[in-house]
Write a structure and sequence with these properties.
It contains nine helices and seven strands; from the N terminus they run E-H-E-H-E-H-E-H-E-H-E-H-H-H-E-H. By secondary structure, it is of the alpha/beta class. Strand 2, helix 2 and strand 3 form a beta-alpha-beta unit. The chain binds NADP nicotinamide-adenine-dinucleotide phosphate and coenzyme A. Coenzyme A binds next to helix 4 and helix 6. The site of NADP nicotinamide-adenine-dinucleotide phosphate (NAP) has 29 residues, from helix 1, helix 4 and helix 6.
Length: 267
């Protein structure tokens, strides 16, 4: 599709769901791929799969909330892979909770993973990016620009992530580093969908709200990341790109009302 052989890729939060699909997409195109997340077993399982796909893969366990863990892992990857051509940052946490039922620590935990964690990853990778030429991709969510009940923590955190993307495009452009956000729509079979759409009936209803008439797949997001990381997107930086079958143009199919009602009924 697009040849990434000889390129070094790091996917933070790349051990399940969408981000694992992204890691596999780069491996399938010949890249050396490293993944990171908290759980060592998930890291090992993903590295095994990436090797099956032919990638010279590696991984490390780290919590994005801990700058020193992320920094140490990035240094290790750099020692083995050399300068990083592509970094995808997608570690995140989500659960539905109405603001009045959400503790200060519940809000903080999502802000710490999604927003502070993204900042930590950006700080840790910058010295080791290929300059010029590197492409950085932050995985955002429609909640960044579509307000949703029971998602105040996620809305605030992901809006922040997109502003990190847009601001760093200004600061890093001079060094020839591009940075963009990808905004997945509802992606089938993922932890995010299991938490926000916890039954087959609801998943069907969500799919009906997608103008293209289906849920997305991790491979859909992988393909968008391949494009953004390639020379085809050589003049693209600072953008926030929905890859969502048009879902966000359709107010996410009324997901806010549904989530608000679901959480109110559980009180
Ligand atoms: P997922 O499978 O739970 O993926 C989250 C990844 O991040 C996992 O690899 C997880 O591994 C890692 N992670 C979580 N907390 C971490 C931490 N503190 N430090 C390091 N790694 C951490 O979820 P997903 O649904 O595929 O979502 C992936 C991304 O897509 C997220 O950024 C999410 O906001 C975004 N998104 C998802 C959807 C959807 O439909 N699913 C829609 C829009 C946007 P460990 O547990 O091992 O740490
Ligand atoms: N509703 C309301 N509050 C919740 C909650 C829920 N479903 N789940 C967790 N919280 C609150 C906890 O009660 C706690 O607050 P408290 O100390 O005031 O009680 C706070 O959030 C932190 O919870 P904890 O379990 O200690 O956090 P953690 O750091 O171990 O895990 C989470 C972080 C909560 C985000 C966890 O769901 C996670 O690891 N998620 C990663 C995977 C994921 O969410 N994938 C979906 C796509 S991003």
């Amino acid at each position: 599709m697009i040849d990434f052989s000889g390129k070094s890729v790091l996917v933070v939060g790349g051990t399940s769901g969408i981000n694992r699909g992204v890691a596999e997409a780069f491996a399938e195109q010949g890249a050396r791929v490293a993944v990171a997340s908290r759980n060592q077993e998930k890291v090992d399982d993903t590295v095994r799969r990436l090797k099956e796909l032919g990638s010279d893969a590696k991984g490390f366990a780290a919590d994005v909330r801990d700058m020193s863990e992320i920094q140490a892992g990035v240094v290790e990857v750099h020692e083995q892979f050399g300068d990083l051509d592509v970094v995808v940052s997608g570690a995140a946490g989500n659960f539905p909770a109405l603001a009045n039922d959400l503790s200060e620590n519940g809000f903080k935990s999502v802000m710490d993973i999604d927003l502070l964690g993204t900042f930590h990853v950006m700080k840790a990778i910058y010295p080791y990016l290929r300059k010029p030429g590197a492409s950085v991709i932050n995985i955002s969510a429609p909640q960044a620009f579509i307000p949703m009940q029971a998602q105040v923590h996620v809305c605030a955190a992901k809006a922040g992530v997109d502003m990190v993307t847009r601001t760093l495009a200004l600061e890093w452009g001079k060094a020839g580093v591009r940075i963009n956000s990808v905004v997945p729509g509802p992606i089938d079979g993922t932890e995010g969908m299991a938490r926000l759409a916890p039954s087959e009936t609801i998943r069907k209803k969500v799919a009906e709200g997608v103008p293209l008439g289906r849920l997305g797949t991790p491979a859909d997001i992988g393909k968008a990341c391949l494009f953004l990381a390639s020379d085809l997107a050589g003049f693209v930086t600072g953008t926030v790109i929905p890859v969502d079958g048009g879902w966000s143009q359709n107010n996410c199919g009324g997901m806010s009302d549904y989530l608000g009602a679901m959480m109110a009924s559980q009180r």
